[in-house]
Amino acid sequence: MKTSVIISTYNAVEWLEKVLWSYARQTVESFELIIADDGSGAETAKLIADFKVKATFPVIHVWQEDAGFQKTKILNKAILACRTDYIIMSDGDCIVRKDFVAKHLKKRKKGRFLSGGYYKLPMSISKLISKEDIDLGRCFELKWLLKNGLSKSFKNNKLNAEGIKEEFLNSFTPSKATWNGHNASGWREDILAVNGFDERMQYGGQDREMGERLKNLGIKGKQIRYSAICLHLDHERSYKTQESIKLNKKIRKYTRTKHIKVTPYGIRKFEALDAVVWESPEVSKKI
User: Which of 41, 107, 189, 286 has the most CB atoms around its CB within 10 Å?
Assistant: First the structure.
């Protein structure tokens, strides 16, 4: 196996099934699929068990009890479950194009992490997409999407950029290369070096905060938003709260201004560190 792919999910069987179909159509099979499950029920477990039997690659279901939105915790557990030295991350609501894994593998490079994006679909098309549409790649064809109600936009270039156009748009996009949980990849040793995700953080920029620590460590991001393509299926975000967003912004600001490389609230727990110690730049550097 050349890489581990982590996708997160929580009680979204209809969307997860479509996503799993897309991984079954990848042009390369030299990967393992780690499903980071933040407390889903029996229906999700059955879907994964059935898919595991049919899959031509290893499928690992990492589950934790439902305790509210705890995505950072289950992702850290999934990172530990990975058995390769390179990790691709996406979500259980993102259908990936057949060359998604291949693109990440082709563009990986030591000292870098890859920053992809997504194409957000309206609910009508999200519901419409069938297994056949995924198997044949129709759902990634701009003509098919426009026929089924997609609006015309510059963003549509994400769906058909290839070759020189693809590289040009990657190089000149105004979007910064950030760690995006729906489409990013990096070396496992680098992710472990920054101690994974900060488990204090809930919804709202928790993935980007880890990317900021990677940058502080000297691991630069590389933009591939026009290369590794995934379709984001529409859904509500009942777990989105102003309190979590406010806390996450505070943590991210501290990470940036203090150039924090390692969180004491990640995979390895530094229980001896209290708030005063964590405020000390000397101690932070030592960690």
Answer: 107
